[in-house]
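Structure in, sequence out. Go:
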């Protein structure tokens, strides 16, 4: 497989190259290109050598006096080199501003058809964490490289603008291409290294809206390459279901527990009740779930059973005595009822109002306070009028 080389570092000023901790046989090696026959110096994993534990391979730019030059940002002209980088310049070589000093090999042969992009789409919809995901800065601040590596990884500090706030440390693998330099200013959510960011990090650092924009953009990119047009609304519906759960961080005066995963609508209803009572509301953070997990953790056991693990879902529902309110589309289609959407939603509201009027008519015969809500929540307002009368009449017969 061939390689495509892209620019990694280029000189910002004119000066002289000086190798630092770039030693033959320890941190660099000669590699012959089979196609061209040209040899080049490549940085290798210096930690594998007995004398390379404390090395920090880098290239610095010296002025005419042999001093390290200072860039316009006020930091030294020092460039750390990752494992696998190819050196384009020799030690002591004069370079001009804009000259490329290193390059990183990248695979040039990639599948560009729709099947080649499907693994990326699956990764996004399943909300999987990439094996070597890019690190996202959690604060606005200035980049600083630590003097020593930690746990075999390069330590990068982001010093917040507020000097009273402690710097945030990130550990980057030595083989990864760091896309920031010493003294660079980064904003919250900016990438510090090459790679795809973790969706959970985007949600935690930048919020729901940024996550939605990123996911839709990444998924659409795969299909646009093949001329396939998909309206964003279809992806937004899926994303909404992936974000239906929240994690409780402060239960307030509710009965929830810290760390409990609850449906967002349920928490909002509970908070409305707490607000009307003048009590403390529950606080929560959004949770991103993959489509498989989101489908299995839905409130409807009928919907969950139709997706995966049918026997397990139905057995658990029977064992726990669960009730399905038939509030979604799928479960209503399965049992042959009108779906609560479009004209079906309007009819359901009309039937609910009619059912409540019928209940009020029979109120004197049974305990309406407990039965009213139970009847409405059980979704019996989707019944045909004749069936509805049978439900009310049967309860009347039992209570009398």
């Amino acid at each position: 497989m061939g390689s495509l080389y892209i620019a990694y570092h280029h000189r910002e000023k004119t000066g002289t190259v000086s190798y630092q901790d770039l030693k033959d046989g320890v941190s660099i090696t000669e590699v012959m290109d089979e196609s061209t026959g040209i040899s080049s110096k490549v940085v290798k994993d210096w930690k594998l050598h007995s004398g390379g534990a404390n090395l920090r391979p880098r290239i610095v730019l010296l002025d005419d006096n042999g001093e390290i030059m200072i860039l316009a940002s006020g930091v030294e002209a020092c460039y750390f080199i990752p494992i696998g980088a190819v050196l384009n310049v020799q030690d002591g070589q004069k370079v001009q501003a804009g000259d490329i000093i290193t390059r990183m090999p990248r695979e040039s042969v990639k599948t560009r058809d729709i099947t080649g992009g499907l693994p990326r789409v699956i990764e996004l919809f399943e909300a999987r964490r990439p094996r070597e995901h890019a690190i996202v800065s959690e604060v606005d601040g200035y980049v600083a490289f630590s003097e020593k590596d930690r746990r075999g990884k390069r330590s990068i500090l982001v010093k917040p603008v507020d000097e009273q706030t402690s710097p945030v440390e990130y550990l980057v693998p030595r083989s990864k291409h760091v896309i920031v330099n010493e003294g660079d200013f980064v904003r919250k959510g900016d990438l510090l290294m090459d790679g795809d960011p973790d969706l959970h990090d985007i949600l935690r650092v930048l919020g729901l809206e940024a996550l939605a924009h990123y996911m839709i953009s990444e998924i659409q990119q795969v299909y646009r390459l093949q001329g396939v047009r998909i309206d964003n609304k279809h992806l937004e519906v899926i994303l909404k279901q992936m974000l239906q759960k929240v994690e409780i961080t402060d239960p307030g005066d509710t009965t929830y527990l810290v760390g409990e995963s609850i449906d967002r609508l349920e928490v909002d209803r509970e908070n409305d009740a707490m607000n009307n009572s003048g009590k403390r509301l529950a606080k929560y953070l959004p949770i991103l779930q993959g489509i498989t997990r989101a489908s299995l953790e839905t409130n409807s056991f009928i919907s969950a059973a139709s997706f995966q693990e049918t026997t397990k879902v139905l057995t658990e529902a029977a064992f726990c005595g669960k009730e399905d309110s038939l509030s979604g589309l799928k479960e209503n289609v399965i049992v042959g009822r009108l779906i609560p959407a479009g004209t079906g939603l309007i009819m359901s509201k009309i039937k609910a109002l009619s059912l409540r009027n019928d209940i009020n008519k029979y109120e004197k015969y049974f305990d309406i306070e407990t039965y009213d809500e139970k009847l409405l929540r059980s979704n019996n307002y989707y019944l045909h009028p004749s069936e509805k009368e049978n439900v009310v009449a049967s309860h009347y017969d039992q209570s009398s």
